[in-house]
Amino acid sequence: MDVEDPTAEQTIDESLYSRQLYVMGHAAQKKMMNANVVIVGLSGLGVEIAKNIILAGVKSVTLHDPSPVTSFDLGGNFYFTEEDIGKPRAATCHGKLSELNQYVPVTLSTSDTIPLANMRCCVVTCGYNGAELVTLNDQCRAMDCSFIMTNSVGVFGQIFVDNGKEFEISDTDGEQPHSAQIEAITVENPGVVKVLEDQGRHGLETGDVVEFTRVKGMPFLNETKHTVTVTGPYTFSIGDTTAAAVPATQGYINQVKQPKTMNCRTLGVSLEEPGEMMISDFAKFDRPQMLHTGFRALQKYRDTTGSYPLPGDSAAAESVVTLAKEIDADLDSNSQKIIGQLASGSSGCLSPMCALLGGIVGQEVLKSCSAKFTPINGFFYFDATESLPDVPLPAVDVKPRNCRYDSQIAVFGFAAQERICKLNYFLVGAGAIGCEMLKNWALMGVGCGEGGQVHITDMDRIEKSNLSRQFLFRNTDINSAKSLCGAKAAKAMNPGMNILAHEQRVGKETENLFGDDFYDKLDGVCTALDNVEARLYMDQRCLFYQLPMLESGTLGTKGNTQIVVPKLTENYGATRDPPEKSIPVCTLKNFPNQIQHTLQWARDYFEGAFKQAAEDANQYLTNPNFEESLNAQQNTKLDTLKQIHKTLVLERPTTFADCVSWSRLKFEEMFNNSIRQLLHNFPPDQVTSAGTLFWSGTKRCPKSLDFDASAVCEEAEMRNHFDFIVAAANMRAEMFGIEGTVDETVILNMLSSVNVPAFEPVDGVKIAANEAEAKEQKEGEATPQSGMMDPDAEAKQILGSLPSPGSLGGLKLTPVEFDKDIDDHMLFVTACSNLRALNYDIKTEDTHKSRAIAGKIIPAIATTTALVTGLICLELYKLVGTPNKELTIEAYKSAFCNLAIPFMTLSEPQPPAKTETVVNGAKFTWSPWDCIDVNIGNVTLGEFITWYSDKYNVEISMVSYGVAMLFSSFGNKEKLKARMAMKMSDAVQDVSKTILPDNQLFLVLEVMGDDKDTDEEVDMPYVKFRFK
After folding, report:
1. Cβ–Cβ < 8 Å for 624, 814
2. Which of 197, 196, 224, 226 is nearest to 209 (CA)?
3. Rounded Cα–Cα distance for residues 343 and 972 (Å)
4. Plot region of 429 (φ>0 → left; ψ -120 to 50 → alpha; else → beta)
5. 784 band by pLDDT with thresholds 50, 70 and 90
6. For a designed S-S bond to 442, which of 4, 60, 490, 791 qualifies (C-beta 3.0 to 4.6 A apart)?
7. How far is CA 1019 from the centre of its chain?
8. Is residue 86 classed exposed, middle or buried when 0-12, 13-18 and 19+ CB atoms within 10 A define those classes?
9. Please, are residues 608 and 589 in contact by the beta-carbon 8 Å criterion?
10. Is 885 strand, coil or helix?
């Protein structure tokens, strides 16, 4: 096959593909950018695949499908409208697909045959009989073109992948290579490597290959690769190390990923002998073989009749079952029933299924193009039969109505479609998941009927890096509100959608907008968020208002979904991940040993030097009550004043040359003087009281840096010394409203005139060697030492030495807030971090890698997003209600997926935890979903206490509203007497000294009391009191 050289140098638009590059990597992205793909069949599934791979950035996409659009296609293809029925499918969506990515040309094939020349991958989604598909697969093999066949029929899906013989995979799983710090390497054959235990297990397996770097004591190991034999979680052996005189100490090991070769079988062979197939749901371990038979029977029926069975045609469905029994005579009754369901809904093209399969197949295409991640080998099947009725619906309920919802009606019936259209849902977030959800909901008809409504909120605005996975947005939308643009795009897909966009975050501060009256009208909530805090808040809202919650998230190729059903499943916040470990202050300040440490240190410095310093100075310049507010911060006021004095007096620049000078002096202070002082306190040969070297283990002995504007760091491909000066000087200039420059000649000229004072380390400087000493020093700083000035007196002296705000001519500084997507900010942080890393002989990193670590960027790719939204929308069908079927917890499915391996597991959610107590002598069980729902009107406090006491046989000792104590048995009797006659809402306002918002309908009360008969405390859920 004549294709371009995949190693040819190409330019990757990192601002567009930023988040995806953290998934695929630069090498794989470049391979994709050299790969042509043809997609055959542009119904819902075909357009989903096309969308995903165009966003990902393959070289080109060719569309081939002359078939006319039908009403069934409108259920899955988001670019078709009712006016397009009868038009050629590929031609109809060609224009819209071409708009998705300016770097990917999308061409339309008008020939009768599928264009395979120069193609890296051919994807077929429909339109061919079985023999033609086998022949096409063979043709692809002959042209070194990967072949993927996929099918979406109702709630069933089929995928087949053939990447040919000896397909080499460069990275099987996409996980970060294991790395560890070396504690010691023994001198023996084989040598044993022990890693530092407090850094975690090495994570290696026998046969893995590692590379050694920065090893002390065995320099011959550096930059060499070795195959390991694991001997324990913290040890492994390598080859002969007896060439060394002494054991090695410190250093790093990094896993080197090895390529793997996969041999695939053709479609013709796999149809007869599918072999082991991937399982998506272990509760259905026998399902893949059954569906393989079912799909073969369905294909045979189509080959014979020219189409799939029509909705409601029970005879046609039975014919498919008969064909299946001819293929496998051992099919049991349940298998026959499921194959009958497959046949009955086979005309239906459902948006969630297209999204789900389109995400998986889209990633399979990228695997074929990039050779990264492990492909599906052969067949994969999926189904969501839990959402289907146990018996077929009457033909009249599923017959086509020549409308955009014909596909859903064919599967779930007209009554279910009406319920979907009447839904009122709140979508929180309009990012990647939010965009996919809006698309799915528009096609499903969520909120598209009379009384239906979709609310969407997102406070963020569109950035260029969003465009590679948030497909509703275009270049022209950059800087516009995500929620508004998303709502507009969804409305264009389905003009019947009733959608209202908001730009507020969800939280306590917006409960005036999203309050009781808002949630009271909802049928459910869908979270499309990127942080746990907001998810937990929405979880509490759903618990309180008894609303289902559709939750999903992604991390690169990994995705998860969680379905939360009131009373039936546990809530989202019932289980939480452990908090992220923080880096010890002592490690950050003096003893870094990983690039994460130096990047956090650089981030902290950025915050202090360019943001906090400006904000503190502005407080002095603009706040007439500055001294009063300063006195309220006794622990920090002296440090704050010292910083202000530096900013406005000692180090205040008036020209850009002053900014360059400041940057050069900061370089000397941070990367030379402080290191020399540290080594003065702790010399390289210092020994601890235990007799071990101080500079060992996690403590790496540093070295000072001499400034060299021409120095080049080959590891990071940066001029760290000069880059630091450029970035710091320009950031400083921005703070003070001074015009900066990046002109190298100008800056070098300014640097030549900077006078750098000589430095000599001094005795008596205290440097904490560990966290305990750091804590002791901090406590000591709070107590004035003998001979030292009193902190209050020193603060007063500094305050008196500051120029008055009026004398500074209205000066106001501009705080610079760190933004990982601003290159100037990242230039400073990366250069600063790398210089610190050079001090401590830690591997430096380029800006791309540093941006991911410092900005805590979540890797993202469109394929995973499509997959999780498809999965969670299948759960929405179940929430709407399946005809003639009462769903139990077993019917609902939460999911975890990893497209890289590939892996998918569906499992039933956990039930809520129960609390047991005794009320009125009987066992009373409740869960976090439960409350005591009181709807007796806005009665008085006394009437409420009497009602509660009588109903639950409880002697009440306390009633509270938040921190406001409405009633306590030991309270002031006169005040209680007056309060008991107040209406509940008045009592709350009187005690809490607040006014209840107009949109508040409920009071959340905590009631404590003892059983009247046993005097035992009764553990009861909170009270949800409706007062209007």
Report:
1. no
2. 226
3. 74
4. left
5. low
6. 490
7. 38
8. exposed
9. no
10. coil
φ/ψ of residue 996, rounded to 5: -70, 135
pLDDT tens string 93-133: 999 999 999 999 999 999 999 999 999 999 999 878 999 99
Alpha helix stretches (DSSP H) within 25-129: 26-32, 44-56, 89-98
Contact 708/721 with Cβ under 8 angstroms? yes
Catalytic residues: 586
Give the residue among 95, 53, 29 at the shortest CA–CA distance from 358: 53
C-alpha to C-alpha distance for 880 and 577, rounded to whole angstroms: 31
**Residue 461 corresponds to which tokens in the numbers above?**
């605005």
**pLDDT, tens digit, 9 for 90 and up, residues 980-990:** 999 999 999 99
* CB 1011 within 8 Å of CB 918: yes
**Cα distance between residue 784 and residue 768, in whole Å:** 19
As a whole number of angstroms, the distance between CA 120 and CA 97 comes to: 20
Answer left, alpha or beta for residue 941, where phi above 0 means left and psi between -120 and 50 means alpha: alpha
DSSP letter at 610? I
CB neighbours of residue 784 within 10 Å: 14
From CA 18, how far away is CA 432, in angstroms rounded? 14
Do 179 and 595 contact (CB within 8 A), yes or no? no
CB 160 within 8 A of CB 361: no
Residue count (the chain): 1028
928: tokens are 């976090």
DSSP string, 953-996: TEEEEEEEETTEEEEETTS-HHHHHHHHTSBHHHHHHHHHT---
Q: Compute the distance between CA of residue 993 and CA of residue 990 in angstroms, rounded to an integer.
A: 5
Residues pairing with 181 in the sheet: 252
Sheet architecture: strand order including 903-907: 499-502, 453-457, 424-428, 524-527, 549-555, 558-564, 894-898, 903-907
pLDDT confidence band for 198 (50 / 70 / 90)? confident
Whether residue 686 contacts residue 765, with contact meaning beta carbons closer than 8 Å, is answered with: no
DSSP string of 79-97, one letter each residue: T--GGGTTSBHHHHHHHHH
Q: Is it true that the peptide bond before 902 is cis, omega within 30 degrees of 0?
A: yes
CB neighbours of residue 303 within 10 Å? 13
Q: Which residues contact 486 (CB under 8 A, 6 or more apart)?
A: 430, 434, 435, 438, 456, 458, 472, 473, 501
Alpha carbon 1000 to its chain centroid, in Å, reads 33
Q: Which residue has the higher pLDDT, 766 or 6?
A: 766
Q: What is the DSSP string of 781-841?
A: HTSPPTTSPPHHHHHHHHHHHSPPGGGGTT---------TT-HHHHHHHHHHHHHHHHHTT
Sign of CA dihedral 642, 645, 648, 650: negative
Strands (E), 117-251: 121-124, 146-153, 156-162, 167-169, 179-185, 192-195, 209-213, 225-227, 229-232, 235-237, 248-249
Query: Which tokens belong to 880?
Result: 């709407």
